[in-house]
């Protein structure tokens, strides 16, 4: 029997080190005015020693606390990340060990900035089929490790952090609709090579650091198009109207992208939660950090309908419409 699912816990953790636009303008050829106007970002958190795993663990503990369950009650841990501390053990296994989730299956998922939506979708499918009952889904990144600090077009956008949710099966009737896509033919638009790249025979190329590259304008256009597509698909799959959705939580990349979408779908900007001014783009962590902040502000109530939409490298995109 297909089960209903619901979110029962939220948590997040960001590094304490705040880097303002003004701070960046001292090391990069940029200004607070340029960054604020083009992106809406005012500051971001940059790790000073915090790792992807340590941020993920702290977010996970908070989410479990809110959910009121023990780590041993978890069946599944998925960590969405493109900046893991290790390829193996996975961040999921590191989190599992630290929180004592002795009964869980744990793994990482690489879906770039769509990672949290993909990971939540995977968890939802496990729960709906009855295979597992309780899942911890985390988005965690230390983007500052993979930023080219000489590339002012990308360096100003990103920040570090982690967010987590606990989801469970429920007997209550709840809407859950999912839509995901990817287009691997556009992989060059946003790219993070693995390290080291070594060709054993000839053309040996070893790079000491994995650096992200991005075509900002292409990503901007792509994002605007696929968000609209995802909203349309989720609404057409459900029996509700877009006006019935209480909040739309888009991946926090750029306020101009969010404003464009708000105008295009004719939904008041107030319904689009935004905290990118404080954290910048934290990739897979941005949506769960936003959810935890909404929870902390008492914005989330039972019965509300939320739309979560991610987009990013791959190219990848997708969304989840769910009822709290
Ligand atoms: N500070 C000052 N000037 C900058 C700058 C910075 N940090 N970065 C770029 N510029 C300059 C450029 O060199 C260019 O100068 P020129 O006109 O003399 O050549 C000018 O600003 C305009 O650059 P452009 O790239 O056209 O700006 P833009 O309006 O497209 O904004 C982004 C750039 C990156 C902010 C924007 O394209 C964007 O947000 N794209 C989406 C990126 C994204 O969300 N990525 C993650 C997705 S998961």
What layout of secondary structure does this protein have?
Layout: E1 4-13, E2 18-20, H1 21-25, H2 32-39, E3 43-45, H3 52-67, E4 76-80, H4 91-99, E5 105-109, H5 115-128, E6 134-142, H6 152-155, E7 160-170, E8 176-182, E9 190-191, E10 213-214, H7 216-237, E11 247-250, H8 255-265, H9 276-279, H10 286-296, E12 305-312, E13 316-323
Parallel strand pairs: 4-5, 4-6, 11-12
Antiparallel strand pairs: 1-7, 2-3, 6-7, 8-13, 9-10, 12-13
Helix pairs in contact: 3-4, 7-8
The structure holds coenzyme A.
Coenzyme A (COA) binds at residues 30, 34-35, 38-39, 113, 152-153, 156-157, 214, 216-217, 219-220, 223, 253-254, 281, 312.
Oligomer: single chain
End-to-end C-alpha gap:
21 Å
Order of helices and strands: EEHHEHEHEHEHEEEEHEHHHEE
Write down how many β-strands occur, each being a DSSP E stretch of 2 or more residues. Answer: 13
State the share of residues found in helices, binned by percent.
25-40%
Shape designation: globular
Bound molecules: coenzyme A
Cα-atom radius of gyration: 19 Å
**Can you summarize the main beta sheet?**
5 strands, mixed
Low-confidence parts lasting 5 or more residues at pLDDT below 50? none
pLDDT average, as an integer? 95
Name the beta content range.
15-25%
Structural class: alpha/beta
